[in-house]
């Protein structure tokens, strides 16, 4: 799984929208789309322990990304289905397209761990993974071991990459961008929030997901490498060992599920990404016309 | 102090305090507390500082 990358990518998606969508795609939609897969699936991955008994998935990677399991939550198909339902409910193309783009970003980013996602679900239940780092959610290790493994592996590089993408587009975090590009697309939502919060707080709210991603990157990395004293292979270490090799870290078992050949994955991701943006662009104008018709009918 | 510097200062305070605390209390590292922490510090911090600042 990816950690801070999911927080950073929503700003990257918003900052790199096709020209005709700029200022019109809902940031809330991208945020909700990007967070939905883990909202739906992750609560049971680590599980909860009550009275000494753990309740949760017995095979976390199958529950999270596989079939049968909740792996369908990490697919472009489900993202498109939920986006269609959102459109039927709200008739809001900015929200719908934002939701689809955010959802797709999450599903495609997660091909990097050793489990990956079922990109062609429901046509195939094989996972697509490039195995960049080890999927590290385990029954015994919980969230802490998962974080330690991620921030000791190329997962850390992935977070830094997405952080770099956002910082390269730093204007996306400015007040001016928020006013001109973000607020107009969600005018009703920001206006409602503005009735109880001053602009200073609204802007902080907009930046809050980036802030959280950056802080969790720093905090988990600091904890894993400066504070933790893990015992690995019977040896106590001062911090979890870094391992930036492919599918690292070496000290973490590499969970996996049946998957397609790794070399197919970059092609599959590129094709799906192009398809998502292509369909969104193709439907943009007809959706706008339908939205205006719905608005006129409501008036 | 300029408004931008003042604002940057409060974002810095929010980040340093959140990372400093959460690295020892990892339950704070979640997507509810993190964003709320920022909003609370950036929004309420200046008002709280004004209350304790000598007049």
Number of helices, where a helix is a run of at least 4 consecutive DSSP H or I residues of chain B:
2
Helix percentage range of chain A:
55-70%
Mean pLDDT of chain B: 93
Give the assembly state of these chains.
heterodimer
Please report the total strand number of chain B as a whole number: 0
List low-pLDDT spans of chain B: none
| Portion in beta strands of chain B | under 5%
Q: Mean pLDDT across all residues of chain A, rounded? A: 97
Q: Please tell me how large the radius of gyration of chain A is.
A: 20 Å
Give the H and E element order of chain A: HHHEEHHHHHHHHEEH
Low-confidence stretches of chain A: none
What Rg of chain B is obtained from the alpha carbons, in whole angstroms? 12 Å
Descriptors:
A: 299 residues; mainly alpha; two-stranded antiparallel sheet; 12 helices; 3% strand; globular; B: mainly alpha; 73% helix
Write a brief caption for the model.
Chain A has 299 residues and is mainly α.
Describe the structure.
The complex is a heterodimer of chains A (299) and B (55). With 299 residues, chain A is mainly α. Helix content of chain A is 58%, strand content 3%. Chain A is globular. The mean pLDDT of chain A is 97. Chain B is mostly helical and 55 residues long. Helix content of chain B is 73%, strand content 0%. Chain B is elongated. The model of chain B has no long low-confidence stretch (mean pLDDT 93).
């Amino acid at each position: 799984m990816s950690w801070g990358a999911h927080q950073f990518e929503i700003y990257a998606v918003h900052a790199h929208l096709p020209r005709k969508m700029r200022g019109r795609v809902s940031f809330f939609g991208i945020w909700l789309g990007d967070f939905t897969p883990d909202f739906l699936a992750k609560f049971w991955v680590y599980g909860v322990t009550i009275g000494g008994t753990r309740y949760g998935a017995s095979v976390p990677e199958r529950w999270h990304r596989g079939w049968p399991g909740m792996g369908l939550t990490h697919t472009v198909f489900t993202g498109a289905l939920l986006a269609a339902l959102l459109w039927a409910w709200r008739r809001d193309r900015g929200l719908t397209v934002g939701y689809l783009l955010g959802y797709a970003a999450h599903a495609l980013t997660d091909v990097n761990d050793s489990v990956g996602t079922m990109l062609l679900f429901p046509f195939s239940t094989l996972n697509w993974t490039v195995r960049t780092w080890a999927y590290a959610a385990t029954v015994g290790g919980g969230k802490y071991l998962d974080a330690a493994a991620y921030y000791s592996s190329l997962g850390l590089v992935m977070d830094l990459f997405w952080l770099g993408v956002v910082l390269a587009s730093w204007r996306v975090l400015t007040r001016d961008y928020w006013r001109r590009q973000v607020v107009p697309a969600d005018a009703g939502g920001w206006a409602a929030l503005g009735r109880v919060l001053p602009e200073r707080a609204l802007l902080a709210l907009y930046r809050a997901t980036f802030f959280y991603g950056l802080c969790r990157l720093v905090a988990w990395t600091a904890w894993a490498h400066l504070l933790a004293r893990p015992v690995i292979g019977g040896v106590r270490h001062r911090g979890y060992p870094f391992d930036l090799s492919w599918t690292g870290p070496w000290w973490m078992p590499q969970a996996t599920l049946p998957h397609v050949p790794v070399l197919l994955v970059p092609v599959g991701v590129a094709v799906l990404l192009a398809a998502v943006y292509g369909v969104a662009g193709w439907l943009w104008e007809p959706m706008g016309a339908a939205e205006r018709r719905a608005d006129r009918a409501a008036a | 102090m300029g408004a931008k510097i003042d604002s940057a200062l409060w974002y810095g305070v929010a980040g340093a305090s959140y990372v400093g605390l959460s690295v020892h209390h990892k339950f704070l590292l979640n997507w509810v507390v993190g964003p709320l922490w920022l909003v609370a510090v950036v929004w309420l911090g200046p008002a709280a500082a004004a209350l304790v600042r000598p007049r």
